[in-house]
Design a protein that fits this description.
heterotrimer, A alpha/beta, B mainly alpha, C mainly alpha, A: alpha/beta, Rossmann fold, six-stranded mixed beta sheet, 10 strands, globular, C: about 0% strand
């Protein structure tokens, strides 16, 4: 089944075409990576999928439903979770509270119940707490639960951000450069973690990443963006050999690119 | 009724210009500070008021020495600009700069500070005037040679000499500012800081100094506006800045906040609109809704602009980076 | 240290009997300072606070000096903030102060009741604004507008005013006030919706100036809607606003052995009513803070984009915060109008909005005890200390011009408080845990 279908999506900022006629499909359970040189439009593409930007052209279908131009909160409610390139945790809230916010849409307490803290509200809150704690245990952050998110070390902040997105119980998880700033050992752990959540939580994952080793090892399929256009798509080994991809990376002397 | 409206129209337009020029001058202070700091400087309305009070005091003390009204006004304008400009620099130094030093990211903090400064200055001036003259409702002394008037178009427009002075001084000020911003090194630095503070500082511009001078220039313009306001409306008190201040801010938003020609245009447009509604609302509603609703109209304009064209008439859209 | 501190409290207790004058009061405040800030054993500190409660109560009973009230407020703050005091003692002492000490003082000097009621009304409103500014991070500069809508909601129908534009028998009987407290919740929430729907779409600093403008619009309407139809009676305001009959309250108090006269009965009644309201408002505040709504508000304050990515819709969530704050203010407006029996546009200026904001900021944005402390401190400052200072200036410093009347300089004081707090202690006097982290790190 197709989780995500992107059909000819274009986004312009003034004269600049940030995303140009991009189409792709992501199947259920896949890890699909979007790569490309800096400024290729990857993050803009994510922002189009999550409703932060509205495409100028094209359609986006999520589980067969048209979500073109919906708002970020609606996308989240439908089951699209995401992380951000520059970590956006709720820094002044505790680790546990961050997870509870991630669980917001599943905590069904009407306003008056919350105001009066009725038995229903207590029950839902208790359930939320239990689930949040078990999620923290799952990702190995339980011992940090009462610390402020901003006081966590960088690697754990990345992890918490993923956990917070998991609390949404998304069907599709968008990870925007999760390995940025990590050393090889941390990246390896991240790789394990991504594979684990994919298989254990039945997730489909869309990944933006610069670390080519990670991308090549983990991805089922890869799409390559350059100057906003999709220049290649296929299995890791196909993409690796694609001359246009090599040109896009090496042609600009980005030696660290294609591994 | 239509006839009544048409008869009044030339006068309404003329009076709207006077109000508009005063708003434009105040609006420049808001827009310049917003340009460099992204801060709504609530205290700017009090800088304007300080200029007005300075003007009153110059007239009070120097009228016996300078019998020529024009000369006296020139002195008042200079003093008003200097006092208000200095007050603006002091506010920046004492209240806003410490916050910048701390590098606060919470946007509420500078805003709340600005409101605090605004309130503080109102009563500070009241205190000073109270100690000085034992009164704080002030009257601008009248100078006989400034009190003339004439009519145009067979009596269709009644023009006071003072109005002409306001227009002349404002236009000079606005032209001077345009020259300063576009043609001088300082102006270029101000625009650079407004574009991108951190890059500008990498280019060897001292941002604190430029911010200080921005407050000085904005404050001085506000001070001149205050003196002219006092000249036209003659009664002044420490709380007189509030309404013109919020309207001038509206004008700045209307023109596109951060945009200097926009502030001038916004001021003129708002002056016209306000004067228009103030005059015609009672006529159109047969006296049921009077001129007191003109402030409501200004506030509603502010809301509508922000909702439907937040970049204003001349501004450019800025989108938060995700 | 422990002995010294206890001795100080005992001396104050003794002097409260012998010489209950201003000097003694300052001694008491000093003793309280030592008890609160010195390194004391928890048990000694607790004993000290109990002694001081007793002493300030006695002091107030014999002197009626409002400095004693400041002492009681100080003890309440100490009880809510100091660590390692047994919970039972915190509650017992707190209740004793609110239910016994203050009423006892009030019978000695009815101005104490007046202060208590005003503090209570403003504390409840600060708690409402705290939801908006403190939790959700929305700077509302027109908060007094909701207070006005609440006050007018009852004032119009609880006085003959409604008869000027409606058919029917007005004023409504006083007991309708309770019903109108509920109605005011609805009318102010709707006003909040009307103001919030456009305003809350805007970014933070624009929100501030738009709420300021729309708050002014409400005041201008109150000032001018005496024509073409006389709804608000314009600048003269509305009087007399009805109060509920309190025969039941008199007999209840009589049964408890409290003898009331005609000045104190309504004062005590409104004092207790306000206490109940604060209790409810605090409860609502705590409940909301610990619910999905409270968390969503803080999340929005921290990062709107991340909050949206968690499925939190911005506008509706902000609107709920805004309407909640509005409703708190509206209920207190009803009580305010009834207690003073008079409502006029003058009470709802920008100054009122800024005063409430200053209370929240002084106490600490997001902090519940902070909002109450802020309200107490600024109300006492405004109604008592500045007035006393004025009196002092008039009598003792005749060379100061008559226009310089310290009581008229609230703006100077509130402005200074806002500036100094923002520069030196943005997290407030009793910071909320989250803000403490955020703002201290910056400091």
């Amino acid at each position: 089944m197709k989780v995500l279908e992107v059909q000819g999506v274009t986004k312009r900022f003034g004269g600049l075409v940030a995303v140009n006629q991009v189409s792709l499909e992501v199947n259920e359970g896949e890890i699909f990576s979007v790569i490309g040189p800096n400024g290729a439009g990857k993050t803009t593409f994510f922002n189009l999928l999550t409703g932060i930007y509205t495409p100028d052209e094209g359609r986006i279908l999520f589980l067969g439903q048209d979500i073109t131009g919906s708002t970020p909160d609606k996308a989240a409610k439908l089951g699209i979770g995401r992380t951000f390139q520059n970590i956006r945790l709720f820094g002044a809230m505790t680790v546990l509270e961050n997870i509870l916010v991630g669980r917001h849409i599943h905590t069904r307490v009407p306003y008056l119940h919350a105001l009066l803290r009725t038995p229903l509200a207590r029950k839902e809150e208790r359930k939320a707490l239990e689930e949040a704690l078990s999620l923290l245990e799952y990702v190995g952050l339980l011992h940090r639960k009462d610390e402020l998110a901003r006081n966590l070390p960088y690697g754990e902040q990345r992890k918490l951000e993923i956990a917070r997105a998991l609390a949404l119980k998304p069907k599709l998880l968008l990870l925007d450069e999760p390995a940025a700033g990590m050393n090889p050992k941390e990246t390896e752990a991240l790789q394990e973690f991504i594979l684990k959540i994919r298989s254990e939580r039945g997730l489909t994952i869309l990944l933006i990443e610069h670390d080519m080793r990670l991308v090549m090892r983990i991805s089922d399929r890869i799409a390559v963006l350059d100057y906003g256009s999709k220049i290649a798509e296929g299995k890791p080994e196909e993409v690796r050999k694609n001359p246009r991809v090599i040109e896009a990376y090496l042609g600009r002397g980005a030696a660290g690119g294609a591994a | 009724m239509l006839e009544q409206i048409l008869v009044l129209l030339p006068q309404v337009l003329f009076d709207g210009f006077i109000l508009g020029f005063i708003y434009a001058m105040i609006a420049l202070g808001y827009t310049m500070v917003y340009g460099v700091l992204e801060l709504i400087n609530f205290a700017h309305s009090e800088i304007f008021m300080i200029g007005a009070v300075a003007g009153v005091e110059v007239f009070r003390y120097l009228a016996p020495l300078i019998p020529n009204g024009y000369l006296l006004l020139a002195v008042a304008v200079v003093v008003g600009a200097a006092v208000a400009g200095l007050a603006a620099i002091l506010v920046e130094r004492l209240a806003y700069r410490p916050l910048r030093r701390r590098g606060t990211t919470n946007r509420l903090v500078p805003l709340v500070t600005a409101i605090g400064v605004s309130f503080f200055l109102q009563d500070l001036v009241r205190l000073i005037e109270g100690l000085w003259h034992n009164e704080f409702f002030l009257r601008m002394r009248t100078m006989p040679d400034l009190e003339g008037s004439f009519t145009l178009f067979g009596g269709a427009i009644f023009i006071q000499t003072k109005s002409v002075i306001v227009i002349v001084v404002s236009v000079l000020m606005l032209l001077g500012l345009t020259y300063l911003v576009n043609r001088t090194k300082l102006g270029m630095a101000i625009r650079a800081v407004a574009q991108d503070l951190s890059t500008a500082s990498l280019m060897g511009i001292n941002p604190d100094q430029i911010i200080s001078r921005t407050f000085l220039i904005g404050g001085a313009l506000g001070g001149v506006a205050g003196v002219l306001f006092a000249l036209i409306y003659t009664t002044i008190n420490p709380y007189v800045g509030f309404l013109p201040g919020i309207k001038a801010f509206t004008a700045a938003v209307l023109g596109g906040i951060g945009n200097i020609p926009g502030a001038m245009l916004g001021g003129l447009v708002l002056g016209q609109l306000e004067n228009f509604f103030g005059t015609y609302l009672p006529i159109l509603t047969a006296g049921n809704f009077g001129a007191e609703y003109k402030d409501v109209v200004a506030f509603l304009i502010l809301v509508f602009i922000l909702l439907f064209r937040p970049q204003g008439l001349l501004g450019q859209m800025v989108k938060e980076k995700v | 240290m422990s002995l010294l501190s206890l001795a100080l409290s005992l001396v104050f207790l003794l002097l409260s009997f012998l010489a209950p004058n201003t000097l003694t009061a300052f001694l008491g405040l000093g003793a309280l300072g030592v008890a609160a800030f010195a390194r004391l054993e928890p048990r000694v500190r607790t004993l000290n606070l109990a002694l001081l409660t007793l002493a300030f109560t006695l002091f107030l009973r014999s002197s009626g000096n409002t400095l004693g009230l400041i002492g009681l407020v100080g003890i309440l703050v100490a009880l809510t903030t100091l660590p390692r005091i047994p919970r039972g003692i915190r509650v017992a002492l707190g209740l004793a102060i609110l239910l016994l000490s203050v009423p006892i003082a009030g019978f000695a000097n009815t101005f104490i009741f007046e202060l208590g009621i005003q503090i209570g009304i403003f504390a409840a409103m600060s708690l409402g604004l705290n939801v908006v500014v403190g939790m959700a991070g929305l700077l509302d500069l027109g908060y007094a507008a909701f207070f006005a809508v609440g006050a007018y909601t009852w004032a119009i129908f609880g006085s003959p005013q409604a008869g000027k534009f409606l058919q029917g028998n007005f004023p409504l009987p006083g007991e309708y006030m309770y019903l109108f407290m509920l109605i005011a919740v609805v009318t102010t929430a709707i006003t909040g919706l009307l103001i919030g729907l456009p305003a809350l779409r805007l970014r933070g600093d624009y929100l501030a100036i738009v709420t300021l403008g729309l708050g002014e619009v409400v005041r201008i309407l109150a000032n001018n809607l005496d024509h073409p139809i006389n709804i608000t009676n314009g600048p003269q305001g509305i009087t007399p606003v009805g109060r509920p009959p309190i025969d039941w309250f008199r007999s209840l108090m009589g049964a408890l052995g409290v003898r009331l006269d005609e000045t104190t009965d309504y004062q005590l009644f409104f004092y207790l009513l306000v206490l109940v309201m604060i209790g409810l408002v605090v409860l609502a505040n705590v409940n909301l803070a610990n619910s999905r709504f409270g968390r969503a508000w803080v999340a929005i304050r921290e990062d709107e984009i991340a909050a949206q990515a968690m499925g939190i819709p911005l506008l509706p969530t902000k609107l709920i915060a805004f309407m909640t704050g509005a409703a708190f203010s509206g209920v207190m407006g009803v009580i305010y109008g009834a207690q003073r029996t008079f409502v006029s546009p003058e009470s709802f200026t920008l100054l009122a909005s800024i005063t409430i904001l200053a209370m929240v900021i002084l106490g600490g944005m997001g902090s519940i005890p902070g909002a109450i402390l802020g309200a107490a401190a600024l109300t006492i400052l405004n109604l008592d200390i500045l007035k006393t200072f004025s009196e002092f200036v008039r009598t003792s410093l005749p060379w100061i011009p008559s226009q310089v009347d310290p009581a008229k300089y609230e703006r100077l004081v509130f402005g200074l408080i806002l500036i100094l707090m923002m520069i030196y202690r943005p997290q407030g006097l009793i910071p909320e845990a989250r803000h403490r982290a955020e703002l201290e790190e910056e400091a």
